[in-house]
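quick one: fe (ii) ion bound model?
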Amino acid sequence: MKVINMSNNSSDTAKEFAQALHQSGFVVLTETGIEQSDIESLYSNWLNFFYQADDSKKSFLYNKDTVAGFIPRTVSETAKGFTKKDLKEIYHYYDGKICPPEQKEISDNIRLRLLDLSAKLLGWLHEYLPQEIKTELEEPLDSMAKDSPQTLFRMNYYPPLDSFSDDAKSGAQRAESHADINLITLLPNVSSAGLEAKTRDGKWTPVPYMPNSIVINSGDMLAMRTKDFYPSFYHRVIQPSNSHEERISLAFCVHPKEECKLSEHHTAHSFLQERYREMKVK
Ligand SMILES: [Fe+2]
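yep, here:
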């Protein structure tokens, strides 16, 4: 998996990034300008939310129509094609929708910076699309995502394994094998290892866990819209060997506006609704 230092910021960086995503669907970026200390503050702030009693968290319970808000472990998600729920709790924060007041300021700060970075990355991906794919697009990839209310700040909290029942843990993963729904996902500085991606030859490979880095992966919407030029690969978060270890990660999921056409059969809206039903969130 390619590791790219963003501090060079030359046209070579853009090309290198697009080629790496084309080849493996995952890229690790370092020196992005988003400091590790800021991400660590974000994570410790959100841990305070997840450490609260269920009754307190449930005052932010998710809305079934918008899926904004807190999704408890009793709902969690079930990856497409699997039966066991993931071993996690989730908070979906959309701009302008429900957010715990103590977490809002720091989340908005990071959200805006990730939004800027994602616009730059999508611009690079568009620039290096083959001409025959580019001409079929109604608008550039970065413009599809511009001001999209569907772009999602998604905090994943994986509690220690020993807080789950044996039945819940048996045959389950922290996040079972899945492909992301959206255009691209930005994963800054996760708090521990455990993320694995499936390579083209079908092998599970650990995604490099590096300080001061952001992992970028392409999602199904990008793959669909670019006819798999930027492929969307399966990935998962495996159970750790230490049953006391917790994990927290922010997945910043960049979505197109819902009216954007993805294929002959799908708009971004119809595809998203189908996937949420498959994941038993709706
Ligand atoms: Fe994912």
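The chain is about 30% helix and 20% strand.
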